[in-house]
C-alpha cells in the first residue's frame, strides 16, 4: 500500500461532497478514526486493507486503485491482468511539480501508475492539464520521452526562461526563433518566442491516455 491513499480518499470526499462523519458511519467507524487515517501528524493511524476496501466499495471505485494507486478508479482487475499478460509496462504517474525531483534524483512521489504498451517503457508519465468542463471528468496522462529530438508541432515538456517549473508546450521553429504555445492549443497567438538556449526541453510527448473520473 502506498501512502497516496490519503490524497485519493480526500479527493473522493471532495468530489462527492461527503464529510468524514458520513464516511465513518458508512463503514462502521468513528469520525475520529477517519480523521486519524487522513492526518499526516503524530496522531495518524493506518487503515487496514479491509477498511480501505470498505471505503472503495462505498465510493464505487476499485480497491487496487484506492490502496495502491494502480490503474484508475474504474480499471477492472481483469484489465490489469490482461495488460500484464500482454507484456504491458507499468509506469508511475507524476504531477508536473514532481518532475524536477524525478529527473534530478530518479525518485519522486507518484500519483499512481498505469499500464502502457511496452514500446513506451523508456518514457515517464506526467499528468497533462486539461481545462473547462473536461477537467472535471477526465485526467490525461502524457508519456514523455527524454531521448527524442523535437520537431515542429511537437508537444514537449519544457521549462521557459524565468520559470523553474516545467509545463507542456507546443513548439514551432521558424528560422532561429521558437514560437511557443501553452499545451496543445495553437488556435491563439503564441505565448512566447525564444531561442534554442532559452528553453530547456525535458522530453517530447509521444503518447497519452485518458482516465475518466467519477
UniProtKB/TrEMBL annotation:
Pfam families: HTH_3. Residues 9-66 form the HTH cro/C1-type domain. It comes from the Bacteria. One of its GO terms (molecular function) is DNA binding. PROSITE patterns: HTH_CROC1. SUPFAM superfamilies: lambda repressor-like DNA-binding domains, LexA/Signal peptidase. This is HTH cro/C1-type domain-containing protein. It comes from Vibrio maritimus.
Amino acid at each position: 500500500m502506498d501512502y497516496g491513499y490519503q490524497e485519493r480518499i480526500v479527493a473522493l470526499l471532495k468530489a462527492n461532497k461527503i464529510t468524514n462523519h458520513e464516511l465513518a458511519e458508512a463503514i462502521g467507524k468513528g469520525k475520529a478514526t477517519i480523521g486519524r487515517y487522513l492526518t499526516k501528524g503524530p496522531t495518524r493511524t493506518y487503515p487496514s486493507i479491509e477498511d480501505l476496501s470498505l471505503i472503495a466499495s462505498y465510493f464505487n471505485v476499485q480497491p487496487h486503485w484506492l490502496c495502491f494507486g494502480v490503474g484508475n478508479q474504474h480499471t477492472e482487475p481483469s484489465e490489469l491482468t490482461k495488460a500484464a499478460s500482454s507484456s504491458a509496462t507499468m509506469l508511475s504517474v507524476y504531477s508536473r511539480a514532481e518532475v524536477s525531483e524525478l529527473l534530478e534524483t530518479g525518485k519522486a512521489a507518484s500519483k499512481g501508475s498505469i499500464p502502457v504498451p511496452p514500446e513506451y517503457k523508456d518514457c515517464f508519465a506526467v499528468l497533462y492539464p486539461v481545462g473547462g468542463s473536461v477537467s472535471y471528468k477526465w485526467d490525461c496522462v502524457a508519456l514523455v520521452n527524454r531521448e527524442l529530438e523535437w520537431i515542429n508541432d511537437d508537444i514537449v515538456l519544457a521549462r521557459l526562461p524565468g520559470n523553474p517549473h516545467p509545463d507542456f508546450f507546443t513548439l514551432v521553429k521558424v528560422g532561429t526563433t521558437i514560437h511557443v504555445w501553452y499545451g496543445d492549443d495553437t488556435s491563439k497567438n503564441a505565448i512566447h518566442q525564444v531561442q534554442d538556449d532559452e528553453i530547456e526541453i525535458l522530453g517530447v510527448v509521444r503518447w497519452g491516455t485518458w482516465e475518466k473520473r467519477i
